[in-house]
Amino acid sequence: MLVNLRKSSTLPQRVLENLNTCILLTDQDMQIVYLNPAGEMLFQLSSKKACQRKLTELITGPFDLLRHIQNALKSGQPFTRRALELELSGQRLLSIDCTVTPVEEAGRTELLIELLNVDRQIRISKEESLLEQGDASRELVRSLAHEIKNPLGGIRGAAQLLQSELHSEEQKEYTQVIIAEADRMRQLVDRMLGPNAVPHKQQVNIHELLERVRTLVLAETQKGIVIHRDYDPSIPDFSADPDQLIQAVLNLIRNAMQALDDSGEITLSTRVLRQFTIGRTRHKLVLDLKIIDNGPGIPPELIERIFLPMITGRSDGTGLGLSIAQSLVNRHNGLIECDSKPGYTVFNILLPLELEV
């Protein structure tokens, strides 16, 4: 039946052609004999070219998976593996669910392999977690700010009254310290709350904004840090608050500069993503702005919490820059994601590009 499917345009064939799951068929020598369109997208290879190769040329690992596939071919027993790190030719890694089913065809055993890319589901789950984390942290900070600001106001007011009653300049120095520290604590709480202004949106060009930020950071950076640009000129103008976006990008680039510690490279990259999901909302066009550095990376114990207020890996850091950047991008219905390993850290700003009506 499978041989006939490859030569027909029947309903089963059309179903295979329209599945979102990669369907791949090999003969008993592991030669690929069929690949549906979802498989072409997964392997980034046409069906015609794929059918000129063996399975082991497209899937290079993990070794354990290849061994199980070979055993299934010999034993005739199907198997399923979930959330595998699949290694594809070209050194690409994908998280997939894999089902392998041996099928008897004209006295020969063929393998029907189903590969479901779960990277997208994992990413959506991670994005939802980031959005929920941001909402929860902002609510917590608002509650704490209310509890802190009230006594701070009382402390400051009492210090001012006490100062007006004092005649000794030496004693007034103590009340001035109290007032200054109360003001500093109030400013810190305000920074923890993040920007409260509603975005004043207008049509902006992302590359003009990036060049303004680049000019600012080059003026304050050490000569040992180099900033590269990799722009997609086809990205259209879109509606956003330019000041808020500049502040978000500036926070991320300064964070990268501090990680590099006077020496290294930062790359600003822009691309357009089509039919892309942010959280649970699908958008026709999305801006993917990457800020990449080749620094030491973010410690694994911090990577899941770096957008929370007061979380920092530096002894002199406030832990507010990334939290504020996330808040600013969230106000534009976007999201910041992060991935990091030694020598490669990337912050992805994802912003919808749809025109507002």
Walk me through this protein's architecture.
The chain is an alpha+beta fold and 357 residues long. The chain folds into three domains: 2-117, PAS domain (Beta-Lactamase, 2-Layer Sandwich), CATH 3.30.450.20; 122-193; 202-352, Heat Shock Protein 90. The protein is 45% helix and 29% strand. The chain contains twelve helices and 13 strands. The chain has helices at residues 2-5, 11-18, 37-43, 47-50, 55-58, 63-75, 119-165, 169-193, 206-220, 242-260, 300-303, 321-330; strands at 22-26, 32-35, 59-61, 79-88, 92-105, 108-117, 202-204, 225-230, 238-240, 264-278, 281-293, 335-341, 344-352. The strands form three sheets. Strands 2-1-6-5-4-3 form a six-stranded antiparallel beta sheet. Strands 8-10-11-13-12 form a five-stranded mixed beta sheet. Strand 4 and strand 5 (92-105) form a beta hairpin. It starts with a helix and ends in a 5-residue tail after the last strand.
- Structural class call reads alpha+beta
Give the helix tally.
12
As residue ranges, the low-confidence spans are: none
The main sheet comes to: 6 strands, antiparallel
Determine the CATH topology of the largest domain.
Heat Shock Protein 90
The rounded distance between the terminal residues' Cα atoms is 52 Å
Shape: elongated
By DSSP, the count of extended strands is 13
Descriptive tags:
elongated, alpha+beta, 12 helices, Heat Shock Protein 90, 13 strands, Beta-Lactamase, 357 residues, 6-stranded antiparallel beta sheet, single chain
